[in-house]
Amino acid sequence: MRRFISMLILLSACLAGAAQDKTTLQERIDQWKNDMAEFQQRRAPEIKQQEATDSLLWQQAWSAIGKKSFVIEADAITFKRGTRIYVNSTTNFISVNGERGVVQISPNSFISGPNGLGGITVNGRITGMDVSVNKKGLVRIVMNITGIGISAQLDISLFPGSDEAYAIISPNFNSQTLRLEGKLVPYELSRTFEGMSL
């Protein structure tokens, strides 16, 4: 009997401890929820400001596309086999200014290259430019560029509410596709430096 009473006391103590742990756990969860709500409230003005900035940059990019006067300043290039490298956006770009288009790839600034900047610069005439916007707000620009050193299709996408863009360059004479990622800016605001063309 004494053993039975000891077991009951031990069991009730365990149950009380479990209830206390459960209360402590619930208190921790509530505290975490309160902390997250406070954090979100403090960040709300910052998020709104960033959204407003992004919207302004998108409007600027969209206007530049409409004028056929823009540059994609690339900070990353992905080659055909998936190798991705980070590059200098002042020397790696695609520019469109009216009917003239320039593609410059200069991944290595330590070697002079044909353009004097560690890569190649090709320019040509823009034809067949088609601009569309899907239901999610993604802007897509498809065009051809043809010149002495280039004959390729450019497929450019501008993300909704941002100036972030990427371009896929598909040469017509081989399968050496490239993908450039960066920001789409108005031609007159571009910080790029053009090397010697082929």
Automatic annotation (TrEMBL):
Record InterPro entries: DUF4251
Domain of life: Bacteria
Any single Pfam family the record assigns to this protein: DUF4251
Entry keywords, A to Z: Coiled coil, Signal
Signal sequence, start to end: 1-18
Coiled-coil residues: 15-42
The name this protein goes by in its record: DUF4251 domain-containing protein
